[in-house]
Amino acid sequence: MIHEVDEALRRLLGESGLETSGVEVVFDAPTRDWAARRSAPTVCAFLYDIREDTARRGSGAGEVYDADGHLVARRTPPRWFELTYLVTAWASRPQDEHRLLSQVLACLVATDTLPARLLTGTLAELGLTVSLDTAGAGSDAPAAADVWSALGGELKASLAVRVRAPLAGAATAAAPPVTEGLVVRATARHESGEAEPGRRLRYTGAGDPGPQGFTAPRERGAAPARRRRRGDRQP
C-alpha cells in the first residue's frame, strides 16, 4: 500500500506541471550527503512517520465474488494508516526553491482526496477514499525540526503532508459451491438376516446415477417426490 501512495503522489505532482518543467519528484531521505549530490531541481517527499488509525479498525469479514457471482473468498476489513511526508523543494537558489514549494502547495491544498484515476494496485481495487491533508495541525507525528536533526541536515522550509490510506485485509479462500444432489440409500433385512438389495431415494426428475452413485441435482424450486411407504393406498 505504501508504494501505491507514493505513486499516486508522484502522479498528482506530475500533473501540476513539475515533470514538463524538468523537476524531479523523488522519495529519498534528504540527508546532507544526498543534498550534496543533487544536481537538478527536485521535489522530495520523504515518508518519515506511519501510524494506524485505530478508531477506524473494523471487525467481521467481507465477501469476495467472481465475475459469475460465486463466492470465492472472505476478506478481513481493511486497516487504515496515516502516512506523513516531509515535502521539500531543492534548487540552486532559495528563490527558486520557494517558487517550487509554492507550486507544490497550490497543487496539494486543492486536493482533499487522491483522485481514483491516480490510484493503482490494492488502492484501486478497494475503491475506498484516500484522503490528503497538507500543512494541517493536530498531527502526532514528530516535528519537522526533530526530523531534520535525525537526518543530520539543516532546517529547511517544508510541508507536512498526511495521507490516510487503507491496507487491504487478508483473504481466505471459500469452499466451492455445491453442484451435486443428495443421495440416500436404504437397506432392509429379512428375518433370516440376509439383506435385501439397497434402494436409492432420490428426487423425482433427477438424472440417472453415475458410476459413483451420484445423481444430478434437481432444478431449483422443485419439490422432492414423496416417498411411498408400505400400507399406502393406491390412488
Summarize the structure.
The protein has 235 residues and is of the alpha+beta class. It contains five helices and ten strands. It has a five-stranded mixed beta sheet with strand order 1-2-5-7-6. The chain has a three-stranded antiparallel beta sheet with strand order 3-4-8, with no helix packed on it. The protein has a two-stranded antiparallel ribbon with strand order 9-10.
Give the strand line-up of the largest sheet.
1-2-5-7-6
Rounded to the nearest angstrom, the radius of gyration is 33 Å
How large is the share of residues in beta strands?
Answer: 15-25%
User: What name does the CATH topology of the largest domain carry?
Assistant: STM4215-like
Helix vs. strand class: alpha+beta
CATH class of the largest domain: Alpha Beta
- Counting DSSP E segments of at least 2 residues, the number of strands comes to 10
- Helical fraction equals 10-25%
Average pLDDT works out at: 80
User: What's the architecture of the largest domain, going by CATH?
Assistant: 2-Layer Sandwich
In N-to-C order, the SSE pattern is: HEHEEEEHHEHEEEE
Q: Tell me the major beta sheet.
A: 5 strands, mixed
The N- and C-terminal alpha carbons lie at a distance of 71 Å
The shape is elongated
**Total tally of structural domains:** 2
Could you state the oligomeric state of the chains shown? single chain
Please tally the helical runs, counting DSSP H or I stretches of 4 or more residues: 5
Low-pLDDT segments, ≥5 res:
205-209, 211-223
